[in-house]
Design brief:
about 120 residues, alpha+beta, four-stranded mixed β-sheet, 4 strands, about 30% helix
């Protein structure tokens, strides 16, 4: 299974930049990290930094032809499965077969995500 998320233009995918942190972007970054660690083929594409990915995918190109409010788009094995919002933890758990607890903090713990900064 290949899971791709096509996101609107933003300065960074983590939600850690700017004047305030976007908890939704942090949640998605955590989920994608967990999925990659478990061997899933996942990718996130930002319209600002990877516009070619949007043009190369005919389904995505058609979806955004009338406006960008349909972003983010979640694509699984080439088919759009969600428009205009990120998938919930429950939706991703159902899709992957992983327990929903894999993506959420347990008993007050904060999710641990390693972030690598490139020079």
């Amino acid at each position: 299974m290949k899971l791709e998320v096509f996101e609107p233009a933003m300065c960074c995918p983590t939600g850690l930049c700017g004047p305030s942190i976007d908890p939704e972007l942090t949640r998605i970054a955590t989920i994608h990290y967990v999925l990659k660690q478990r061997g899933f083929d996942v990718a996130r594409y930002n319209l600002a930094s990877e516009p070619n990915r949007f043009v190369e995918n005919a389904h995505v190109q058609a979806a955004i032809a009338n406006g960008l409010e349909t972003l983010p788009l979640t694509v699984v094995d080439g088919d759009i499965v969600k428009r205009g919002a990120y998938m919930t933890n429950e939706e991703i758990a159902e899709l992957t077969g992983l327990p929903v607890e894999s993506f959420a903090a347990q008993e007050g713990e904060k999710p641990k995500v390693r972030i690598t900064l490139k020079k």
